[in-house]
Amino acid sequence: MSEAVPGLPVAVDVMGGDKAPEEIAAGALQAAQETGVPVLLIGDPDYLKGLPKTPGVQSEGATEVIGMDEDPGRAVRLKRDSSLVRCAEAVRDGRASAMVSAGNTGAAMASALLRMGRLHGVSRPAIATIIPVPGAPTQTVLIDSGANVDCTAHMLVQFAQMGWALATERFGIAEPRVGLLSIGEEATKGNDIVKEAHELLATGAAGPQVKFIGNVEGRDVMTDHVDVVVTDGFTGNVVLKTLEGGVKAVVGGVLAALTSTEDVKEAARAVMPALMPLAAELDPDTYGGAVLLGVNGVCVIGHGSSSARAVVNAIKVAQHAVEEGLVARIEAVIGSARSVASN
After folding, report:
1. I need a surface site. Which of 55, 157, 209, 257 has the fewest CB within 10 A?
2. Beta carbons of 236 and 156 less than 8 angstroms apart
3. Residue 301 dihedral angles phi and psi, to the nearest 5°
4. DSSP string covering 232-297, please?
5. Are residues 96 and 218 in the same domain?
6. Which range of residues forms the domain containing residue 226?
7. pLDDT digits (tens, 9 = 90+) for 205-237
8. What's the CATH number where 117 sits?
9. Are residues 150 and 279 both part of a single domain?
10. Are residues 28 and 176 in the same domain?
């Protein structure tokens, strides 16, 4: 299965996440009601029976749950009737167009990889996370943000290809600018793998479509200077968590300042309406979740603390990826690069 059918429901892991099952189910029901996207709820059969009947919503029982702290590979092998594994199987079997889970990230990856399979030519699937760029019309794609701790230069080239495909699908950018994360803009900066990847990307190894702009630095990630930032999963996850912590600290500091005195509180009443759109841009729930790229299907992995709002947006992300043929885009760009290399 390399081409999902838009009319099929999005499978939702109701039992995955810190706020499961209530928030997850609430978000899925809301998405079906407000967007018309059909959903397939997979989870504890007794809990699902108690949910209100909603048009466009199907349910399927699963008797096991993979915990957030369980070993991903072992849990997927042993808990074959878990909600997470059943979601991946629903996509594999053509009963769902995509899957969404806010549960154990490693288990979500393992389920998708083992049940859906890997796309032809892909060395390793990678997690692509959307990074907000306040005030810009689009955001930045950060890939890999945690799937592959150790990478080769050729893997980074494929991450560039997959990130390019996501940027074209998600934001409609005709020529996404792809940058390689390093410690300096010069081609000579970085470790051996980064320097090798730079040479490959600069000489067109990612294919004719991929516009490589060279090295970028950490300060560029939340700017409109680059559309896709490529890095290994270890560095990417550190960048992601650092940005999350930094944004949280700044927002907390601003809120504390705006409530520090009665005079400031009075002024804050006038300022807050102007700050609310910015707060929404910086809220991870706005973006729904990260997309696992390189597997033979659409898999959206939400934040562990996803709210109902995050689930609604994750389902929208999954549906859009299906409708715009994200998997086919990835296949095409990787195939194009192989064709160029063989000539």
Report:
1. 55
2. no
3. -110, 115
4. -HHHHHHHHHHHHHHHHHHHHHHHHHHTSSHHHHHHHHHHHHHHHHHHHHH-GGGG--EEEESBSS
5. no
6. 124-285
7. 999 999 999 999 999 999 999 999 999 999 999
8. 3.40.718.10
9. yes
10. no
